[in-house]
Specification:
4-stranded antiparallel β-sheet, Methyltransferase, Cobalt-precorrin-4 Transmethylase, Domain 2
């Protein structure tokens, strides 16, 4: 698994997350405060796109509006790694 970090201001969090989701290879997104405390963490599975993400993005926007700077950590799938489907149990 590969990870990528973005240090962004509260205003740019939603833009960055939408861009990561559009790329389509993210497995999990973690948003941390400048202090290192995790604000929110959520998995991105194949079935959890589109309409299901709207409430999540709204909540993320509200949380990050209160934070001046934060770090977005994106866990990405490696090429050839199986894709999880929503509700699927990994062994």
């Amino acid at each position: 698994m590969k990870t990528e970090e973005f240090k962004v201001s509260g205003d740019d969090v939603l833009k960055t997350i939408k861009k990561v989701i559009a790329e389509g290879n993210a497995r999990r997104i973690i948003i941390k405060k400048e202090s290192g405390e995790t604000l929110v963490e959520f998995p991105l599975t194949v079935g959890a796109v589109g309409v299901l993400l709207i409430p999540l993005l709204t909540a993320v926007g509200a949380l990050t509006a209160l934070v001046a700077k934060c770090t977005i950590i994106v866990e990405k799938r490696e090429p050839g790694e199986p894709v999880e489907k929503e509700g699927e149990i990994q062994a």
